[in-house]
Write a structure and sequence with these properties.
globular, SDR_fam, Rossmann fold, 40% helix, oxidoreductase activity, alpha/beta, SDR family NAD(P)-dependent oxidoreductase
């Protein structure tokens, strides 16, 4: 079976849906964005700079999928006003949002808590926890305009059971799990919004290679192998699931 996320293996599961994917420049975010487009979604690609995302934009167009959009956002520096402005752009352009996949992540190094620089701690927490919170909060009115909306927070094994030296990244991912649970409870009976977290497992990404430069990257699967699990949760297959801490097994969320 092909693991090319630009193939049509996901059919039209996300047909006519508008899906925002953060971290769409590379790695997991890029794979999820391409898979969503292949499944029929209009994908809003988000990363640091517009120019960075143009190759992903072009690939989606060249494959004959719905025309995507580009929404530059620097999760390290963006303010509440920036996130609200981004949500306004989505509203003006599409009138609603059907899905939000949080795929952006930053884990700059491994360190003992004894040695962790306070300013780096705040930066990592901001990118991996505070920014997803602010973006989600800004997008909630748009998600409520959808008849079947889904939020997928990308989790990590170190955010479910702490491991030494993962520091602020692990703490942020524990926070993501808490944010997911609280938001799921708040939206469960009052909206059509589903909220879940998904641990994709250890993948062959630039983030992993940076943290473990001596590791053989071929030990781990490509991000494309887990992208279908995001499509599953963002589309009709995910109906009925909310407040769940899920993992990827054999390419599916469970």
């Amino acid at each position: 079976m092909s693991t090319d996320p630009s193939s049509n293996s996901n059919g039209g599961q996300l047909q006519d849906r508008v899906i925002l994917v953060t971290g769409a420049l590379e790695g997991l975010g890029r794979a999820v964005a391409l898979a969503c487009a292949a499944a029929g979604a209009t994908v809003i690609l988000s990363s640091f700079e517009q120019a960075d995302l143009e190759p992903v934009y072009d690939r989606i167009l060249d494959a004959g999928h719905p025309e995507p959009a580009i929404l530059p956002l620097n999760l390290e520096t963006a303010t509440e006003r920036d996130f609200l402005a981004a949500a306004d752009v989505i509203l003006d352009t599409f009138g609603r949002l059907d899905g939000l996949a949080h795929c952006a992540a930053s884990a700059p190094f491994l360190s003992r808590i004894d040695d962790y620089d306070a300013s780096e701690w705040e930066r990592v927490i901001r990118i991996n926890l505070n920014a997803p919170f602010m973006l989600t909060q800004a997008c909630l009115p748009l998600l409520r305009l959808s008849a079947d909306a889904s939020i997928v927070f990308t989790s990590d094994r170190v955010g479910r059971r702490g491991l030494a030296y993962w520091g602020a990244y692990a703490a942020a991912k524990f926070g993501i799990e808490g944010l997911m649970q609280v938001l799921a409870e708040e939206t469960r009976a009052s909206s059509h919004i589903r909220v879940n977290s998904l641990d994709p497992g250890v993948l062959r990404t630039a983030l992993r290679a940076h943290l473990y430069p001596g590791e053989d990257p071929n030990r781990h699967p490509d991000p494309e192998t887990v992208a279908g699990a995001y499509v599953q949760l963002l589309g009709p297959e995910g109906r009925g699931l909310t407040g769940c801490a899920l993992r990827v097994e054999n390419g599916r969320a469970c």
